[in-house]
From TrEMBL:
Residues in coiled coil: none
UniProt-listed InterPro entries: HAMP_dom, HATPase_C_sf, HATPase_dom, His_kinase_dom, HisK_dim/P_dom, HisK_dim/P_sf, Sig_transdc_His_kin-like_C
Nucleus in keyword set: no
Entry membrane topology: Multi-pass membrane protein
PANTHER family: HYBRID SIGNAL TRANSDUCTION HISTIDINE KINASE C (PTHR43547:SF2), TWO-COMPONENT HISTIDINE KINASE (PTHR43547)
Domain HAMP, residue spans: 164-216
Localization of this protein: Cell membrane
Listed GO MF terms: kinase activity
Catalytic function, reaction form: ATP + protein L-histidine = ADP + protein N-phospho-L-histidine
Listed Pfam families: HAMP, HATPase_c, HisKA
Root EC class: transferase
Identification of the protein by name: histidine kinase
EC number: 2.7.13.3
Length: 443
């Protein structure tokens, strides 16, 4: 059901309820006025009651000839009906007995413990109120029809105006969503509004921006992966085509070169798969308590051949022999390996790389953390490149030869692995002075 139809139905129901309420109020007001009039002249009402009861007793506990009796207090009342066992024995005024039974004030008559009848009466004030009520009930249907018609027309115009005002931003939002679906025109939402429609529009625009950013990232990833795959594939293809055309066997050097390119492809594929699983949250961790110092010694042993090739000294210092962390060993080793191998790659031959582990308390954190510092005295990272070092396939040193470079995914994989353990990485660097990566992990 459309909003406009709902508004029309709601307004119509409200009008009917308002008229019924008005009718009910009028009805209740009549009875309140009738009873209030009794309280104002209570003595006169009671005197009339006593006069009828006295007549009954004086005539031998009988109402014989009461219909022609002349009663002193009857002149104070516009309407009187005496009813005994459903029969009317005395009546004064213009109204019928049934009308008076319905709207008159009731006075019970008794002689001792015996009930001898009931009076239905109206004094002048009550009768005038009754006349007004009767007149009002008589004209109320016409007034109701006229007011209903007038109100309905006015409400209809108001509803059309309000529904247009209410549905206008909805139509714009729908148009913006259609633009998102088509993707060929920019989506425009009524964000300038200060109501719920403005909040919805802002949320939709932010969602659209997020989707657009995700789509750009997807396209960029495909482009980067294709670019990274292209070079080793071209090298392998070229060498194999040359060997096929010449019929000459591949030399040991060519074999080694082709093996390097295959390993590069393998590393790239594994890194892309790892990163995809991490970013999609598909990697389920199975943490166990591990000694962080032992993990650092393990990763240092795995990278020793890289350091020895460049004559780089790698040292470890831990303030405690045991720093317990709850981690999945393979994931943390992968993150630390990427950081340490990066530090070795960017350190000149004869340089130094230092690992430092300690327990720290941070001012904005309730619990203590383990901190690992991976520090080198290498070439450093330019300040302009620091915000981008966790981007896929980003290399701060754009002039590095391809054989000396990695896949460009090491830091982002390290960051994702650390984040999966509720930790984070911070970096400090100066060109020509070296770089420090600080890794924080909850104890």
């Amino acid at each position: 059901m459309k909003i406009r139809t709902r508004l029309i139905l709601t307004m119509s129901v409200m009008i009917v309820l308002l008229l019924l309420f008005q009718l009910g109020v009028t009805h209740i007001q009549f009875y309140i006025s009738r009873d209030f009039a009794y309280l104002e002249e209570k003595d006169t009402f009671e005197s009339l009651r006593k006069e009828f009861e006295q007549f009954y007793r004086e005539h031998g506990d009988s109402w014989e000839n009461v219909g022609g009796a002349r009663l002193a207090y009857s002149g104070s009342f516009a309407e009187i009906v005496l009813s005994v066992d459903g029969k009317v024995l005395y009546q004064q005024g213009k109204l019928s007995a049934d009308e008076l039974r319905s709207d008159g004030y009731k006075l019970a008559l008794a002689s001792g413990d015996k009930r001898i009848g009931r009076l239905y009466v109206m004094n002048d004030s009550q009768y005038k109120t009754y006349e007004f009520k009767t007149m009002w009930y008589g004209i109320l249907p016409n007034i109701g029809i006229a007011s209903l018609l007038f109100t309905f027309i006015a409400a209809l115009l108001a509803i059309f105006f309000l529904s247009w005002r209410l549905t206008s931003p909805i139509r714009k939002i729908i148009a913006g969503i259609e633009a998102i679906k088509k993707g060929d025109t920019p989506a425009i939402f009524p964000e300038q509004r200060k109501d719920e429609f403005g909040a919805i529009s802002k949320a939709l625009r932010e969602m659209n921006d997020s989707l657009a950013a995700a789509e750009r990232a997807r396209k960029q990833l495909l482009s980067d992966v294709a670019h990274e795959l292209k070079t080793p594939l071209m090298i392998i293809q070229g060498e194999l085509e040359l060997a096929h055309e010449t019929g000459a066997p591949l030399s040991a050097a060519k074999h080694a070169s082709l093996l390097d390119e295959v390993l590069r492809l393998s590393r790239l594929v594994h890194d892309v798969l790892d990163l995809s699983r991490l970013e999609a949250g598909m990697t389920e961790l199975h943490p166990r308590t591990e000694n962080l110092v032992a993990l650092l010694e393990d990763v240092t042993a795995k990278t020793r051949f890289l350091a020895e090739d460049k004559n780089i000294q790698v040292s470890i210092h831990a303030e405690e022999e045991m720093i317990p962390v709850s981690v999945e060993k393979s994931r943390i080793l992968q993150a630390l390996y990427n950081l340490l191998s990066n530090a070795i790659s960017f350190t000149n031959p004869g340089g130094k790389v230092h690992l430092h582990a300690e327990t720290v308390r941070l001012p904005d954190r309730e619990h203590p953390y383990a901190r690992i510092r991976v520090e080198d005295n290498g070439v450093g990272i330019p300040e302009a490149d620091l915000p981008h070092i966790y981007n896929r396939f980003y290399r701060a040193d754009h002039s590095r030869a391809r054989p000396s470079g990695g896949t460009g995914l090491g830091l982002v994989i390290a960051q994702q692995n650390i984040a999966a353990h509720q930790g984070w990485i911070e970096v400090e660097s100066a060109v020509g002075m070296g770089t420090v990566f600080n890794v924080y992990l909850p104890l």
